[in-house]
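This section describes the prediction task in plain terms. A model, or a person checking by hand, is given the sequence of a single protein chain and must write out its three-dimensional structure as a string of tokens. No templates, partner chains or ligands are provided. The sample shown here is typical of the held-out split.
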Amino acid sequence: MVLTIDIGNTTIGIGGFQGNKLLFIEKISSRRPLSDAGYIEKLNMILNKHGLSAEAFEGSMISSVLGTFLGRKPLILSHKLDLGYEICTEFPEKVGCDRLADIAGAISRYSLPFVTIDLGTATTFNVLDENRRFLGGLILPGVGTAHRALLGKTAQL
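The expected answer:
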């Protein structure tokens, strides 16, 4: 089993995988940072909720630096990994971990080609062609960010 953690600006997504099967997914807020002990407590609560413990996992993958919760060095998601697709952008090192994870997750569930849309603090669109090539996409303000900007900058909304 593998523990995956996606640390975003607004939430931290935590999922457990057995092979390609998603066993659970939970979200916690990342707006109010916790101490290492606080994050470990939250992770333990999530695992307990699903009848699991840290010992049940053979490894972990994070898309942001959190630490080594499982006592093993996690695999850090980056463009340098074999993710099952080719990154065909001018600066692959600048593609965010969240976008890499979105594409890898979609490949395991959907047929090609496809576009992923991630509605977080930012809204991201990612395009993968029929030959498993990530061609790029868009990064736009997220729904909440756009809403606040419109309310603050327009008179009659």
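For orientation: The chain has a mean pLDDT of 88.
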